[in-house]
Design goal:
The chain is α/β, with parallel strands linked by helices. It folds into two domains: 191 residues, NAD(P)-binding Rossmann-like Domain (Rossmann fold); 205 residues, NAD(P)-binding Rossmann-like Domain (Rossmann fold, 3-Layer(aba) Sandwich). It is 43% helix and 14% strand. Bound molecules: nicotinamide-adenine-dinucleotide. This is UDP-glucose 6-dehydrogenase.
Length: 438
């Protein structure tokens, strides 16, 4: 089937490559000429495991190409809209400029029978509004809202083998559902649930899933605050409560909290939209979820100051990790970058490393010294702080690292190191939600 994917960022580039992998003939369209030139050369615009190989395969077969010209969407039967929906600059709501611009540009090239498939995360009510616009601009074309649940770092697998597909439809009888089933035939063959509903519910499925995940993380981080106040250990607590199948252990890792291009802006946009609908009281708890999350960043700075003897001024701090999570180079609203920047702003001399995110971090916060080498970062450091739990940081050898630093003090912002191993090797080990050594 001929498909277009509009917006080739973290979501769209992966979606386009995966759709080509499923055998479709795909054009990816984006307004960013550098991104498109790179993609046509097989260069992924960001770090995502498996994407470079997928791009190389599909570009090689001729089933995948990229363009800056929306006219190249003409002739596709299905058009996925995967453009960004960032937070507005001065308020909590989502900025839908890109979504409307993309759909308006696409309208000029739609034919009756074409299907537009919304994948971006949008406030409830957007799909119905867009469907009227599409019905007006191209009678006979229709809109399906098909929110995306992929996780950066696992985006290829999550797109090829989603744990569920959600279709929001105006009218289950209009045939759009069958066409989208054909697009996803391979994924559906593995008996994955395909859940059909109205537009509003489909839009809410996405934002409520993100709100739930954010709440679970902030719940355990709130417990970490109480553990810090009482001398208890949040890691032991999480293991113990996580055994209850009604609670589950996933997303119960206390630490520096959530970040990235989705959860923070999605819960804020959700609150803003609920307010517009007169249902703001329903989501006031998300304000607390957001502030618990942000408080962890200041607590991390405080702990680092503590291991430095009460002041950060002139202290050499090695920062391990800048991406908002491992296996990604994404630093959008990254707790790690935010803590690294705060340490520097409070007078420390920060050398930060990350296996993939250094270029993005350096663009956003050029004031830090950057390296990709842990050994270089920790050289003569007064304290080491772990801010993203990359596998290579979880498995560091405390004895070897101890020979490089000026003072063996480590603050584990992700509870990803074994305290006894570091303490036995002579380190001062501190972590969020865990007691000081006895
Ligand atoms: P992104 O910023 O990486 O990519 C958005 C892309 O859209 C950019 O390349 C931009 O140049 C392009 N674009 C903007 N306006 C355009 C236009 N008029 N025409 C064509 N292209 C245009 O963002 P992302 O992380 O890929 O997210 C996209 C959407 O998917 C957002 O709504 C996000 O919330 C949602 N989402 C993201 C993820 C994720 O893990 N990144 C997961 C699920 C859902």
């Amino acid at each position: 089937m001929r498909l277009s994917v509009i917006g080739c960022g973290y979501l769209g580039a992966v979606h386009a490559a995966c759709m080509a992998k499923l055998g479709h003939d795909v054009v990816g369209i984006d307004v960013d000429p550098a991104k498109i030139a790179g993609l046509n050369e097989g260069q992924a615009p960001f770090f995502e495991p498996g994407l470079p190989e997928l791009l190389a395969d599909s570009l090689g077969t001729g089933r995948l190409r990229f363009s800056t010209d929306m006219a190249d969407a003409a002739g596709s039967a299905v058009h996925f809209v995967a453009v960004g929906t960032p937070q507005k600059r001065t308020e909590n709501g989502a900025d839908l400029t890109h979504v409307y611009a993309a759909v308006d540009a696409l309208l000029l090239h739609l034919r009756p029978g074409d299907i537009v498939v919304g994948k971006s995360t949008v406030p409830v009510g957007t799909a119905r509004d867009l469907s009227l616009r599409i019905a007006d601009g191209c009678p006979g074309a229709s809109l399906v809202w098909n929110p995306e649940f992929l996780r950066e770092g696992f985006a290829v697998q999550d797109t090829l083998e989603p744990d569920r597909l959600v279709y929001g439809l105006a009218d289950p009888a209009n045939g759009a559902q069958l066409i989208l089933d054909e697009v996803y035939a391979q994924a559906l063959a593995d008996v994955r649930p395909r859940l059909v509903m109205d537009y509003e519910t489909a839009e809410l499925v996405k934002v409520s899933a993100n709100a739930f995940l954010a709440t679970k993380i902030s719940f355990i981080n709130a417990m970490a605050e109480v553990c810090e106040a009482s001398g208890a250990d949040v890691s032991l607590l999480a293991d113990a409560i996580g055994h209850d199948v009604r609670i589950g252990r996933k997303f119960l890792n206390a630490g520096l909290g959530f970040g990235g291009g989705c959860l923070p802006k999605d819960i804020r946009a959700f609150m803003a939209r609920a307010g517009e609908l007169g249902a703001d009281q329903a989501l006031t708890f998300l304000r607390e979820v957001d502030s618990i999350n942000m408080r962890r960043r200041s607590r991390m700075v405080d702990l680092t100051r503590e291991v430095c003897g009460g002041s950060l001024l002139g202290q050499r701090i090695a920062v391990l990790g800048l991406a908002f999570k491992p296996n990604s180079d994404d630093v959008r609203d990254s707790p790690a970058l935010s803590v690294a920047a705060q340490l520097q702003l409070q007078g420390a001399a920060v050398t930060a490393c990350d296996p993939e995110a250094v270029p993005n971090a350096a663009r956003r916060f050029p004031e830090l010294a950057y390296t990709t080498s842990v050994e270089e970062a920790v050289q003569n450091a007064d304290a080491v702080v772990v801010l993203t739990e990359w596998e290579q940081y979880r498995t560091l050898d405390p004895a070897a690292l101890g020979r490089l630093v000026a003072r063996p003090a480590i603050v584990d912002g992700r509870n990803c190191l074994e305290p006894s191993v570091w303490r036995d090797a002579g380190w001062t080990y501190r972590a969020l939600g865990r007691p000081k050594a006895a």
